[in-house]
Request: fold
Amino acid sequence: MRKSKLSKVLKAARALVLASFFGFALLALFVQYRIRVANDWQRYAKMPKAPIPSKNDSVVVFAPHSDDETLGCGGMLALAKINGARIRVVLVTNGDGYRIGAAREYGTIRVTPEICIRYGYRRQKETLKALDKLGICSSEVTFLGYPDRGISALWNEYWGSENLYFSKATKTNHSPYINSFTRNAPYCGESVMRDIEQILRVEKPTLVYVPHPFDDHPDHYATYCFVAAAITQLRAERADFASRIRVLAYLVHRGDWPVPRGDHTNESLAPPYALSHGETKWFSLPLSPRIVRAKRDAIRCYKSQTAIEKAFLMSFARQNEIFGELKTRSVPILHSSGIIVDGQTADWKGIRPALIDPTGDHLLRELNKGGDVRAVYVCLDGKSIYIRVDCARPLSKRITYVINLRMLPRNTRVAGGCTRRHYGNAVADEGELRYSVTIKPPVLCEPSTTQWQFHNNVLELRIPRRIFNPSGTLFLQVRTRLSKLTIDKTGWVELGIPNE
Reply:
């Protein structure tokens, strides 16, 4: 009798588990199908034409890995070369951290640092061969040699030369490549910024192409941050060419985009549906059949990559390329009594979002809408910085909310001709200043000096300016996570801090 009852309980439990599994699978399929259909229909949206580089232009393309420059900008580069523009293609990393690719390329499961470096050189050669198909010669290509899958860490954590990043792939904290722009370049954010600024000073570009800050790949959005920061720094220093630079962003990684996948040269590209309704103004660059064929041939030169993800790479050989333009927003200064930190939105009336983030464009975000960021607002008064984060649904006690702030220094000359960098109230001889707030409702907040409150889907916080006092330019990002699993991660947004 007891065995019979136990058997029935076990059968009921198994049925419940199976029902839950199939229910989850159906929900996942529905979400993915909805996102795919939206992206598919977006292909028919009309966009204004992108600028075509002319002989009067100087073009600089920054690519995180060897192939991104061709995927995102190959057609534009071919057109620019035909029109007589000056061109510089800058590869930030050599893609040496792609262990699956290295293992396949050299037929081994034991991927050593030496193999990773060989693989990096191999990918360099593929880039040069691909760009040659587009008319770009090797003298127009620069390899920086920074760590693959480590650019985000250089932006977030490893800024100064006293704290270098150690590559898990090459097992070194300096560039091991003999053809790096800076020989033996230290793996730190300061060195990346210095190299980018030096290249920009030499090239004096009119058009700069960078990865989009909402690209899913950390190396991509971090590359955007470094280039945007370098341009902002040069403008602050009143470099004569910097004010004329137009920055255009290209996209490579975003969910299941581009659709349809595969070799469809008669199809056109459009931004993902979720990104087309945000702050980015999108442009389309039509490509002639001859340019499309040249780009298709160039993509095929990346044999180490097409052997693994050919359908994805070939998806970029289309009738056009797309580029986005983002504008720097100014943080409003309050001259009244400030914001009451109570989780209510009434006193934010008239303040526009600092960033608008897509919602429901990923399965994890659809299942955890309390961690799906919808918009972020920022303002300040004489004593405090106020930040408001709006999510798609009420905030969850299971989810941790992290607000990351990054400030750029202002350079001033001091005795002896040296440059000292000022950070609002703080002064440092090198590096930059960052500040992060971690909140897990209803009780946890680090650092404890941050005043915060939440109500429904709104999180408000106040940071005293005596602790963190930005001036000039501020970069901001919001990240949400469930334990160690990232739910949402907004792109980094660049904000201008007006003089008070």
